[in-house]
Amino acid sequence: MSGEFVSRVSLVMLIGLAPFVACCGLLAGWPGAIGGLAGGLVSLGSFRWIARGVASVSAARAGVLPFSALAVGVRHLVWFGALAILLWSGAAHPVALIGGLSLLPPVIVALGLSATRFSE
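RE: above sequence
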């Protein structure tokens, strides 16, 4: 993944997250807004963490691979822990949280398809 692609995905995701959080806030109040924002930021943070890991592993030697498996485990623990705390505390509405998590995949697909179309 190129740094330009990661930056474009991040920018489009943050632009799309603003109206989504506003709608969640109107429909479900503060827990909806917090859930939508948290879901979007968790998915974006996870994407950027994965992109940084892919870039570092592809640039490094073969001896670094066991540490990348450890990094994947740590990443899952951090993000699942953050989601569990948000849901357990009741601060985030569960449907809004899932909606925020679901914003990133269409952004990646749309920007990936447009990047391949313009590269030909």
